[in-house]
Amino acid sequence: MDKHSRIYLAGHRGLVGGAILRRLQQLGHTQILTRTHRELDLCSQVQVEQFFEQERPAYVILAAARVGGILANSTYPAQFLYDNLMIAANVIQASYRYGVTKLLNLGSSCIYPKLAPQPLKEEYLLTGPLEPTNRAYAVAKIAAIELCDHYRAQYGCDFISAMPTNLYGPGDNFDLQTSHVLPALLRKVLEAKQTGATTVTVWGSGNPRREFLYVDDLAAACLFLLEHFSGPGPVNVGTGEDLRIRELALTIQEVVGYKGSLVFDSTKPDGTPRKLLDVSRLQQSGWQAEIGLKEGIGRTLAWYLASAEVPGC
Length: 313
Ligand code: GDP
Hints:
By secondary structure, the chain is α/β, with parallel strands linked by helices. The chain folds into 2 domains: 7-167 and 212-237, NAD(P)-binding Rossmann-like Domain (Rossmann fold, 3-Layer(aba) Sandwich), CATH 3.40.50.720; 172-209 and 243-273 and 292-307, UDP-galactose 4-epimerase, domain 1. It is built from 10 helices and 13 strands. It has helices spanning 15-26, 45-55, 70-75, 77-97, 135-155, 181-195, 215-228, 245-256, 280-284, 293-307; strands at residues 7-10, 32-33, 59-62, 102-106, 159-164, 167-168, 199-203, 209-210, 213-214, 234-237, 243-244, 261-265, 274-275. Helix 1 (15-26) crosses helix 7. The longest helix has 21 residues, at 77-97. The radius of gyration is 20 Å and the shape is globular. The structure holds guanosine-5'-diphosphate (GDP). Residues 166, 179-181, 184-185, 202-204, 208, 210, 245, 268-271, 275 line the site of guanosine-5'-diphosphate. The site of guanosine-5'-diphosphate has 17 residues, from helix 6 and strand 7.
């Protein structure tokens, strides 16, 4: 990708889009096209067509989506399905019509079948029933991957899909009710240190295993794939390593410098026992995550302290 190529980044305000924007800027790209939701409604075919006709991007990164936790997904399934289908269909079709050189579509590891074996390989997609609580979201994201593959097969478009694991980093959601485990525990441990609390509550048994990728590593992987990968099917993006929630909590304690003890709340659900991606396809193409968990947690903490005007520790 030339430094002066016109790159349309859809979803630049989200966790993933924000990291990709930072990366593109660091690399010195001069023609990064962004639009807020207000400026461009990606669910509107007319607006998307007009935007592509006027702006003529050479590259498209599709990081825009309606996202949410288990509660939002199960309360608003029609909106999750409709919005994500429309966003994907409009952006992918316009990319084809206006001759985009390459498009990268962002999937998600939660669209693999609920009971697929671990580590999750790309070919397990569409081999079994989905997790019912996020089925609407998953069906739309799977449709986006299928669109990329079929536009490749029928029209010869170079459209690819990346499948990220659990992400964390600057821009994450720290709301204790709706966030994922890493920002939730980071906030809880920080607040316990600040208030002098002697314990921190961890949901569930602490035994489930999860993989965590720092979002700037994902951004690097996305740009690597844009440059070096062409082919059908999604490419998993992760570290290839997982750890127990208990170990995650201890690592966060160490980074924050909190000496209290952990209490496990068995009234809260554990969820799936393990979620780990098989990243051999990505590694074979020559990319590997660089930011270790401790470093990533440290950077996320620094961002959180600065952005939320949280008193330092
Ligand atoms: P999941 O990966 O889709 O299951 O989503 P989460 O990130 O919300 O949860 C991952 C694991 O972390 C589950 O076993 C949770 O019970 C556990 N966990 C421990 N403490 C917390 C917490 O404070 N918040 C959240 N969201 N999960 C927690």
